[in-house]
Here is the input.
Amino acid sequence: MIVVMKAGCSQDDIGAVVNRIKKLGLKEHISQGVERTIIGVLGQNLLDFQDTLQLLPGVEEIIPVSKPYKLASREFHPRNTVVMVNGVAIGGDEIVIMAGPCAVESEKQLLDTARQVKADGANILRGGAFKPSTSPYHFRGLGKKGLEMLAKTREETGMPVITEVMTPNDVELVANYVDILQIGARNMQNFILLDEVGKTRKPVMLKRGLSSTIQEWLLAAEYILAQGNEQLILCERGIRTFETSTRNTMDISAIPIIKKVSHLPIIADPSHATGKWYLVAPLALAAIAAGADGLMIEVHPNPALALKDGAQSLTFESFRQFMSQAIPIAQATGRKLATSGTKVKS
Ligand code: PEP
Ligand code: MN
Here is the structure.
């Protein structure tokens, strides 16, 4: 439930409410708004305590939170969360572009791609070092070597990097090399992994599970937030439906729904959502129009030779073309594409 404090109440009033919440064995979560403070209350049997909290000085009203997820809900946290990654703001007024190969294959492949996508306006470099793979016979990534290449490319280009972490044991290792920890669709409900990334203070991007509802996805987000990591980004990457013309079905409606029910930034990944390079630009533009805070797009120097996901990877040329189409669509929604953040290392 939420304790809404009166506009202009004193810090002592807020402190007294927080003390009472703690004494009752509950947890508090404070949001300091421009006009008023709201205090989220977490715990069991909350409605039993509603009347006693209502009596405290400075309390305007108590509102029960209807959603099963609390920390992820906009009811609890009305203002947008903005995740800062080396000077790039995700969830602010500008649209952030994450681009790069599905998998890190070599130093040259990664550096060439990073330089090119950066020159065309991408803000963050993606690249998988630990690859989840449906078939055990497909490329499963370069592992630690891939992480080293990501870190080196970050030094050389100044681009922050995002990569997937697949197991709780690897969280510390991956966090030492990259700027954003990605939880892949297949691991959305790996609760031990969610706890582990929640214990770090690194930004995390949580992809929607292959067949997960929006509520299940936000409950997975709740695991990370409940561990105290508030630097959380969501990513819609398509869901499994009966349709076979595309790899997945991109749930565009998830974007405005997330914006309505949650304060977390939402990124769209049209590459995994469609599985086909020629569908990436149209769906990416649709995601911007629907209000996405950013995009994640797979780009490869030579998709025909890619070790993974070549069919959905854009060439340098098609990425550049897409970026020029994205500018007027962003403008039509009253926003613009983010210009790159500060350099990681000068
Ligand atoms: C990826 O982004 O590298 C990936 C494997 O995506 P997903 O988890 O959405 O399938
Ligand atoms: Mn991929």
